[in-house]
């Protein structure tokens, strides 16, 4: 079992509520580190209102898209992508997903081709129902809904983490390849999609992209975990989901501790990555150049002495994400429940 056992429940609670300072030598210097066990709830830098800065032509295309979906949401949508599937009205959560930023992300990803953007958004709505991201009452198999309970076993080693925000207020999603604890399976893909949805909920007002930090360093030997690269089939499926159903979500991708075989792996999967996404990736540069040290682990020359204790981190991460999404939906209802609202306002911006 990968869980770290605690004799006293109160000890876990104290870890969840307190951070302590310790001293450590980093790169020959002694500095005070903060012992840490949880995700951060907010970035260090000030929140900024987004500037959309559209040309008249782009504004016209956006308005056309908005007008189309204002009619679209009055109709019913298939509950999954199978032929002859039943239909169901658009859910509140789906309307709340159809924001101004969402429309603009799909328009940019479609090179401002309106019909392409419309088709992609419709496909994603059905995919979210099919994959279990959106639960359709009376239709979705409860065992297939992507919930914390469904994927928890995948993360008992802390192989995926939401920890801190980068210099541009993007929430940081860490993928720690060396902490792999399960064989390749659909559950791994569901686990990643679960974390994508969670990291989106961690986004502060004014930010709709994430920072993806991938560390290939092996876990300590005593944990006896795998550091194998994902299979090609799993990698292709993940890339397909990212590019088709989470377009324009990657603001920055950082890769570190890449073994020699890793570069071979990148060459193999490279053709499946679109050029624009590839342009956002940075290899073997210090994370401290992009993430405030106050929210960065000592492993990357930060000021945190982060320790993953599953019982502590998992509970807190889900609590914070649920709270943030509850605020999002409450604001959606208060503002009338229509589509095309700004995520800045929905997330609680001034």
From TrEMBL:
It comes from Meyerozyma guilliermondii (strain ATCC 6260 / CBS 566 / DSM 6381 / JCM 1539 / NBRC 10279 / NRRL Y-324). Keywords: Endoplasmic reticulum, Microsome. It comes from the Eukaryota. Residues 1-28 are annotated as: Disordered. One of its GO terms (biological process) is Golgi to plasma membrane protein transport. GO terms for molecular function: phosphatidylinositol transfer activity; sterol binding. This is SEC14 homolog 3. Its main location: other. Residues 162-308 form the CRAL-TRIO domain. SUPFAM superfamilies: CRAL/TRIO domain, CRAL/TRIO N-terminal domain. It catalyses: a 1,2-diacyl-sn-glycero-3-phospho-(1D-myo-inositol)(in) = a 1,2-diacyl-sn-glycero-3-phospho-(1D-myo-inositol)(out). The keyword Endoplasmic reticulum applies. SMART domains: CRAL_TRIO_N, SEC14. Residues 13-24 have a biased composition (Polar residues). Pfam families: CRAL_TRIO (PF00650), CRAL_TRIO_N (PF03765). GO terms for cellular component: cell periphery; cytosol; endosome membrane. InterPro entries: CRAL-TRIO_dom, CRAL-TRIO_dom_sf, CRAL/TRIO_N_dom, CRAL/TRIO_N_dom_sf, PI_Transfer_CRAL-TRIO. It is found in: Microsome.
């Amino acid at each position: 079992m990968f869980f770290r056992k605690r004799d006293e429940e109160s000890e876990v609670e104290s870890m969840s509520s307190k951070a302590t300072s310790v001293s450590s030598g980093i790169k020959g210097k002694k500095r005070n580190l903060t012992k840490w066990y949880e995700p951060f709830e907010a970035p260090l830098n000030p929140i900024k209102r987004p500037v959309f800065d559209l040309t008249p032509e782009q504004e016209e295309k956006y308005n056309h898209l908005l007008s189309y979906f204002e009619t679209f949401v009055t109709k019913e949508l298939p509950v999954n992508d199978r032929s002859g599937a039943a239909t169901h009205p658009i859910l509140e959560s789906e309307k709340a997903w159809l924001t101004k930023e969402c429309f603009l992300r799909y328009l940019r990803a479609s090179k401002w081709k309106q019909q392409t953007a419309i088709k992609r958004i419709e496909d994603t709505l059905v995919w979210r129902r099919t994959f279990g991201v959106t639960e359709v009452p009376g239709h979705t198999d409860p065992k297939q809904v992507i919930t914390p309970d469904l994927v928890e076993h995948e993360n008992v080693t802390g192989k995926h983490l939401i920890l801190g925000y980068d210099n541009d207020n993007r929430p940081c999603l860490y993928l720690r390849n060396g902490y792999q604890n399960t064989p390749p399976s659909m559950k791994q893909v569901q686990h990643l999609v679960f974390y994508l949805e969670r990291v989106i909920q961690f986004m502060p007002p004014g930010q709709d992209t994430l920072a993806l930090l991938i560390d290939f360093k092996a876990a300590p030997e005593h944990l006896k975990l795998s550091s194998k690269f994902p299979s090609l089939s799993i990698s292709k499926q993940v890339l397909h989901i990212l590019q088709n159903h989470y377009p324009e979500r990657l603001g920055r991708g950082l890769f570190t501790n890449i073994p020699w075989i890793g570069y071979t792996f990148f060459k193999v999967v490279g053709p499946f990555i679109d050029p624009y996404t590839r342009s956002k990736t940075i290899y073997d540069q210090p994370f401290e150049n992009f993430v405030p040290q106050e929210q960065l682990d000592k492993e990357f020359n930060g000021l945190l002495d982060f320790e993953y204790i599953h019982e502590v981190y998992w509970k807190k991460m889900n609590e914070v994400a649920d709270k943030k999404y509850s605020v999002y939906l409450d604001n959606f209802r208060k503002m009338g429940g229509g589509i095309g609202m700004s995520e800045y306002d929905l997330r609680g911006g001034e």
